[in-house]
Amino acid sequence: MRLYRTALWLTAPLGAALVAAPAGVTTAGGVAGTMPGSPLSVWTAGAAPETTVVDASRPFPVLRVMTVALPHAAPRPTIVSRTQWRADETKRDPHAHYANGVTAIFIHHTDTPNDYDCADVPRTLRNLYTGQTRDRGWGDLGYNFLVDKCGTIYEGRAGGTDRAVVGSHTVGFNQGTTGIAAIGTYGPGVKVPAAMEHAIAALAAWKLGLLGIDAAGKVRLTSTNDKSRYAKGTSAVFDAISGHRDAYMTNCPGDALFNRLPSIRAMAAALQGRTAQAPSVTAVPTALSSLPPTTH
Fold first, then answer.
1. What is the C-alpha to C-alpha distance for residues 270 and 75, in angstroms, rounded to an integer?
2. How many beta carbons lie within 10 A of that of residue 222, not counting itself?
3. What is the DSSP string of 102-154?
4. Beta carbons of 97 and 29 less than 8 angstroms apart
5. Which residues sit opposite 3 in a β-bridge?
6. Which of 179, 163, 153 is nearest to 36 (CA)?
7. DSSP H helix total and E strand total for the chain
8. Alpha carbon distance 7, 42 (integer Å)
9. 3-state secondary structure (DSSP) of residue 3
10. What gap in Å lies between CA 109 and CA 179, rounded to an integer?
11. Is-contact 166 294, C-beta < 8 A?
């Protein structure tokens, strides 16, 4: 069982941010030197609520910080940093944007060739990075993480692997979610490598476990963009680990990978110490900050 420091939601907000942001980091609202996003949210220890759906739209004020044990936290997998794959940090927007926590994962594929050598993946990442910053104008890699066919996990968008960095991966649902891209193309008939599946599951289990989210459970998200499958302001229930196509009109992450998501959810839940017979211990009220829409 791991211990994490988190904020206890009570009844009244404080008048000022409690934590200073690192130099060069702003909140999504653009205010430099303040806490990234509005105050942190918390899961409440105790009996499970009547529903297992997590509502990610409810605001909760923060009063003080305490240490609580998250019974279903999963270990952090090894992640290759941006420095290690030699990302040119002069190409990106220097300001990271944050939500208050990750309540869902969206799975993607990069739609690039599958016959790559895993030793060459850093070069592939640099090419994707150039394309998404220079050609698409996204300010950085759209995905928070990328996973290769050998099961190696790479840091994508800058801002901190353990933080809720807002990416540009799922139109309408970038806030409070993490985008994980499988390197390659996983259309019909393509075999998804077992090492890749296991790595995606381990990464998702860890990210969701930071707020106690059940990797095999459901979450409620609210669209921020009319270009998604849901009109702006509309809430919808998703699997905690969903495919890009669940939220946007696309074939991504490809039929083969999309069909493997039930197995990935089961693996991630097992890594969190959950079983098919045991109900979720808790639903996590996650207060997502009122961020400006991210359109990519």
1. 12
2. 18
3. --EEEEEE----S---GGGHHHHHHHHHHIIIIIS--SS-S-SEEE-TT--EE
4. no
5. 69
6. 163
7. 4, 11
8. 6
9. strand
10. 10
11. yes
Say what angle helices 194-209 and 261-271 make with each other, to 10 degrees: 50
What pTM did the predictor assign? 0.73
Cis peptide before 293 (omega within 30 of 0): no
Tens digit of each residue's pLDDT (9 = 90 or more) over 4-60: 443 333 333 333 333 333 333 333 333 223 223 333 333 333 333 333 455 554 444
pLDDT digits (tens, 9 = 90+) for 81-137: 999 999 999 999 999 999 999 999 999 999 999 999 999 999 999 999 999 999 888
End-to-end CA distance of the chain: 37
* Burial degree of 163 (CB within 10 A; 0-12, 13-18, 19+): middle
Q: Cα separations (Å) of 15 from 156, 168, 190?
A: 34, 31, 54
